[in-house]
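User: For documentation purposes, I need each entry recorded in a consistent format: the amino acid sequence on its own, followed directly by the corresponding structure tokens. There are two entries in this batch. Please keep commentary to a minimum and don't merge the entries.

Assistant: Recorded as requested. Entry 1:
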Amino acid sequence: MKKLLIIFISTICFAFTCKKAIVDSYIQKGIKIDSIKIADKKRRFEIFLTIPVSKIKKLDLLIKKEILEDKAAFINMVNENIKENNGKISFIGSDYSCVLNHIFDNKFIISYNFINSQYIGGTAHGISRFKSYNYDLKKGKFINFNDYFHLKSDADSTYLLSAITKRINRKGVEVNTLERIKFNILKDSISFNFDNYEIASYSEGLIQAKISKNEIGRLINSNYR
């Protein structure tokens, strides 16, 4: 009974945190945020989505498509969980959210950072991850790591890895690869984002390392300085 109570309390806290996330914004006029809420009483799950709407239809459609695909994947997981438990549904319920966490928008770039969190009823704990979209308004395409950063040597890569690890500043946590690293662009800094379990134990939670553009400016492609 005590174990069930602990899981129940953890789930309430998890859902509350997801839905109370605040958008930290530096934005131009013309971007609004739509939200979608779904509550399925029969299967005991709730979904909360935030979807940005800008003047760039191509960008809006691509992001919305991915958000809805992730939502559908969560519902499939709930259905599979019910099936594996012979039709039994956990009284605790399940929860999924996609919350817009940061927005940066100027004349050249739009950068979004989302936190995706999910909990499947009856499991030990939820799981969260970051999802970022950096978009070049002039070129009309997404900006990947090699577009935004220009690392000329191994020394440059080592410098950036060291800077990220130093900014995280947690015992035993070290970033040792830039491969598939997630980042989003802010007004004066770059945020490097790490999911649950990506570089540390679950207890460390989601990890962000925000580094001033002045500190790593020489590593940024001249087109984006």
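Entry 2:
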Amino acid sequence: DQARALDSFSDKEKVVLDVILFFEVDSQELVKRLSARRQCGACKEVYNLVKRPPKTEGKCDLCSGDLTQRPDDEASVVQERLRVYQVQTSPILDYYKGRGQLYMINAAQDIDRVFAEITAIIQTRESHSPS
């Protein structure tokens, strides 16, 4: 239903959706990434304790505000969000896969490799598009 609603919206708004990118990451990796996220209560700057930690523990680099973990970034909440997401997303992926529009991206790779994959997909699609 969500995929058909998106198709209907794109038809109505005359927006062409010819590429659907799905960023795959192992559930355990997602829990690890999201539960390490911290946000400044003052300026809302976001940090990751593993990939992008603040210079001073618990303090924002920009404004020295306190960093906190949002309730929806707690591991148990992330796991439940993932469970719901997987149930709701599977039919959408099948729908777009059947239409040849779905491209899976391994998002566990470093950001440069992910960007290279996205670029290659877009360039391939553009080179096969009618002029």
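Summary note for entry 2:
The chain has four helices and five strands.
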